[in-house]
Amino acid sequence: MSLLALRDVTRTVIPQDQPALTILNGVDLVIEPGDHVSIVGRSGSGKSTLLNMLGLLDTPTSGEITFDDRPVKQYSAAQRDRLRGAAIGFVFQQFNLLPGRTALENVTMPLLYSTGRTFWRRKKMAADMLALVGLEHRLNSMPDRLSGGEQQRVAIARSLVRGPRLILADEPTGALDLDTGQSVMELIDEVAERTGAAQVIITHDPTIARRARRHFRLDRGVLTAVDDPTLEPLTRRDRREAAAPDEQPADALVALGLADTERGDA
């Protein structure tokens, strides 16, 4: 049984007074439980749109998306929201931490929408997750008192506190220096291995992509498997954009239960 599958997925939009624009073109991708996949692509290649599809934030113009082999189109909007909240964790380039809340409070936020035992244990679950990412000594620290790497660790803890089965990371090291970025990727890998979660890493950086077991390149909406992303030729534009922040899907903040209060750059 596959965890998530996209089969011949196309996404087309029609700008006002302009011809139709195809953003994704016949994408096929199957994610198995515990999988580790990387997708490399420059800005404008369709990465954000693909992330929306993988995160069940959007529906395709044509083709099919299944989760646990069930077509997503059979879910109501409310059911998709619940499935996303329970099964998918998002990690972004920008940390999107609430500035007036401690690390513990930031990680607790997604659990405020839980029910029953999870709701009443939310602070302990958040503290345990912060300990897992090595920040048990920073529970009461405000974001502006944390380094960039520590802020990203808090963001990772917040994304994973609900125990997602799928981790979607969109340029997770883009705002970090090289050494800190590598340590953050090692952390995501470690947490995913412990929990059995599948990972999909979307990145400009072929060296980050190479950490995955399967590699893909997205170019002009077409997804192609590659043997080694570090051997894929990067254009001058690729290298220039590798240092520039990618736009993240605003709806993903809704998925994290962080809408309006920290919409920020979305």
Shape: globular
CATH topology: Rossmann fold
Largest beta sheet: strand ordering:
6-7-8-3-9-10
Structural class: alpha/beta
One letter per element, helices H and strands E, the order comes to EEEHEEHEHHHHEHEHEEHH
Please outline the major beta sheet.
6 strands, mixed
Query: Which residues form runs of ≥5 with pLDDT under 50?
Result: 258-266
CATH homologous superfamily descriptor: P-loop containing nucleotide triphosphate hydrolases
- Approximately what portion of the residues adopt beta-strand conformation? 15-25%
CATH architecture, by name, is 3-Layer(aba) Sandwich
The end-to-end distance, rounded to whole angstroms, is 34 Å
Structure description:
By secondary structure, the chain is of the alpha/beta class. It has one domain: P-loop containing nucleotide triphosphate hydrolases (Rossmann fold, 3-Layer(aba) Sandwich). The protein has 10 helices and 10 strands. The chain has helices at residues 47-54, 77-87, 103-108, 116-120, 122-132, 148-160, 178-195, 206-209, 236-242, 251-255; strands at 4-13, 21-31, 36-40, 62-67, 70-71, 88-92, 166-170, 198-203, 214-219, 222-226. A 6-stranded mixed β-sheet has the order 6-7-8-3-9-10. The chain has a 4-stranded antiparallel β-sheet with strand order 2-1-4-5, with helices on one face. Helix 5 (122-132) packs across helix 6 (148-160). Mean pLDDT is 84; it is low at 258-266.
